[in-house]
From TrEMBL:
Protein name: Leucine-rich repeat-containing N-terminal plant-type domain-containing protein
GO cellular component, one term: membrane
Pfam families registered for this protein in UniProt: LRR_1, LRRNT_2
Subcellular location(s) of the protein: Membrane
Domain of life: Eukaryota
Signal peptide: 1-21
Keywords, in A-Z order: Glycoprotein, Leucine-rich repeat, Membrane, Receptor, Repeat, Signal, Transmembrane, Transmembrane helix
Amino acid sequence: MIRLSKLFYLLLLLFSQQSFSSPSSSSSSSALVCSQHQSSALLQFKQLFSFSKEVSSFCEAAGHHSYPKMESWKQDIDCCLWDGVMCDNTSGDVIDHELSCSWLNGTIPSNSFLFHLPHLQHLNLAYNYFNHSPISFAFGQLSRLRYLNLSYSMFSGQVPYELSHLSKLASLDLSGYGNVSLETSVVKRLVQNLTKLRELHLDHVDMSSVSLSSFMNLSSSLTSLSLNNCLLRGRLLDHIFRLPNLRELRLADNPQLSWFFPMVISSKALRFLDVSYTIHDSGELPKSIGELKFFRHLIISGCNFYGPIPTWLGNLTQFTLLNLSANNFAGAIPM
């Protein structure tokens, strides 16, 4: 009995030691690190830039903190630990580049090592300075991208049609300073292929030559569409106001753009509408806007509206911003 008890005690002790030691050994063996190929590609990408705080100065104005994230990129440190880099927890592949407001000053050629990261899903290069270089067609090779933000980074020239190959995109922002332009054929390809888009922001992109019919088949998943100051011309078809999930629509500062709000609203999702300094076809504030009970922001300044301010505006109790300025309204805003 004594021998059996000792044997049982030894077995119990051995099992306990294995139980306590196995988690640490399992953790160390399963720890993932960035592959040498991806680490090398990122370091090569870093060599394209110098760092200057001035090039990201607009970040501070927009309320974002700017700093040179790439300075943490060192060869002897796992790239999954670098600032602005995120890796997949399972595979260790680089899937996220958050490099907005990073003081980047340089250009991104089509043979850049950035395009050697096939698993990339999120890429944000906003508020940097790319020296008026064109947006490379090679961005279209990053076929797994779900988020692409190239805004306010001093790109120039035509938006390449290859961006329409990014069929998994949920968010695309190419807003800028008026140096980038879009053609009708590219807009049609984007609308046709990017069927999963939820956010499309193209503020200050020159679209003066774009046919407004190009927007006919916008993704029904769209929740935010921003086309401020795009030099849009002609009459906007009212189907945009009928998109079932659209919550924010910005069309401001397109003085040659006319529009007509539909008489019947099939979707009640819209919360934010800015059509300031555009042309409303009838000149009378559409009564159907009053059906949008959850409207929070309505900006219709400079649209040549006239007549008495309608009483139904008082029914929209969720307003946090209402701007009716630079019109010819009469009377007081109902409370």
